[in-house]
Design brief:
Helices cover 27% and strands 10% of the residues. The chain contains 5 helices and 4 strands. A 4-stranded parallel beta sheet has the order 2-1-3-4. Helix 1 packs antiparallel against helix 3.
Length: 143
Amino acid sequence: MNLKILATALFLTMTAFPAHSEWPMSNDPAFDTSVANPAYEVSKGPAILLDGAHHNFFIQWDFIEPFTQLAIADGYRPIVGQQVFTPGYLRTFDIVMIITALPFDFTTKNEVTTEKTFTNAEIESIGETNAILPEAHRYQTAI
């Protein structure tokens, strides 16, 4: 599976199958994450950093689980990371995925904030990677 297909799969699994009983959306327990012809042998594919360090509610609420299982089935090595981004840390991964990064836990604030999600150093570090960064997350502040 190439990087564009992987990114599309991530988007589709997150939007179609996201996971909490009190939310109007949830993961589909019948979603089949098997892959008929995996791109890589099990655990031999690229390491994927799933950003869990920046209040990513897809990580916190397990909405990422269908994607994680799909990536594993395709031979990728998804890892939920909790560390601040530095060039050295990010270089230990082949792919960096940042989804719904926030400066605070989701649903804890009702107003617009000017808090920064990433430090300037983290933003510079991200720019040096193979990050898959949705356009909305190219900014330093949460809206």
